[in-house]
């Protein structure tokens, strides 16, 4: 597909980003870190006004949105400290070696550098944490890449207000003009994604739109990396011993996880596999009494959820545990209460096509499995890639001392092949913002299962490696100089060590 022509306004946006790229890449990690902290401070300073706009545009609660602003600010500060530490640069130094095992070795030094301008397509369900200043934006700016954000149509006023906060803070911190810009409209986003001056893309949203954008990025004359977080049903597996030990606690956590933010979370548990004749369905019904209705994000999502819910309830063998429902107001917004249904494993297999796809909203399916079911085999049978997989086990099972320990280990291994994060005795909603976090998984959870959109490893998506051979010190990046003025970690392979390669493995 030929690239769409840029309008004069978009041409200015992309030109500014391209012009800013060299200067922004040349800023020191400390300078960028301070600028990012300034953005975090400004965001929290504007919290009250931004939350008011967000609540009106998205229907999410003030408490949820206030917490999300805090999470977004913490995320920004995490990347600021990541910059100062410098480990993200992956600096490697192989000094010249006349006694190298394969002949004379030149001086070779490798480091990661910014890829250049990046476009980030915002999410609807996290108007702060995965939107204008969310994790993708934070990692793009931290990497030293000019950022063009395509605002989500579900919260345009909030996007403009947040962008103004960010742009003002970055300008005051002395960052080059053009490092942060906002655009509106899907066509505008597609046109910018296809422009040759844009070097990478990021997206959080539906599988269909994510696939379209990923294909556009891959089919450019010069393809670019595209990091999309798309869809996930996050299966949960519960043992009979875990249910016997704490059925009420598990049921309460499950209902909270399914219903929180009206189920509009990419980590919502979409399926729970439980032993048949378990007491858990009754505990779930008891835990779901008197749940308040919650507005869905927009009319389109509301209609889609209503259709998906009806399709699931109509599938053979499906019976409601929690009936739930959805009503539409005069503006077309849907107000939902959670629906949780049960189905036998046999009927789940029969109705797989109608049941297995994600229901974006407060709905989850309990699958009842006969005694002796090979749970590990169910993972590849029913599911493609997912962001998470969860196990609930008893205290004794957690110690690995029960008769079913081999089967549980097999289940853990099966999940690790299909998901990016394996949880025990918890719930997948509420992603911890921490350096080791992995928020990604095999297709269709993400378009690139080696990357993450949460945690400090997210920065590497927007960097690329360059090696310098026999470069005079004056021409080396600071991170690769022997003096190491940045004080970053350097992996050095000393001269002479190649003669002993292999000894560690055979010791």
From TrEMBL:
Pfam families: Aldedh
Domain (Aldehyde dehydrogenase) ranges: 9-374
Signal peptide: none
This protein's UniProt keywords: Oxidoreductase
Keyword Oxidoreductase listed: yes
InterPro entries xrefs: Ald_DH/histidinol_DH, Ald_DH_C, Ald_DH_N, Aldehyde_DH_dom, Aldehyde_DH_Superfamily, ALDH_KGSADH
Protein name (database record): Aldehyde dehydrogenase (NADP(+))
Species annotation: Leucobacter rhizosphaerae
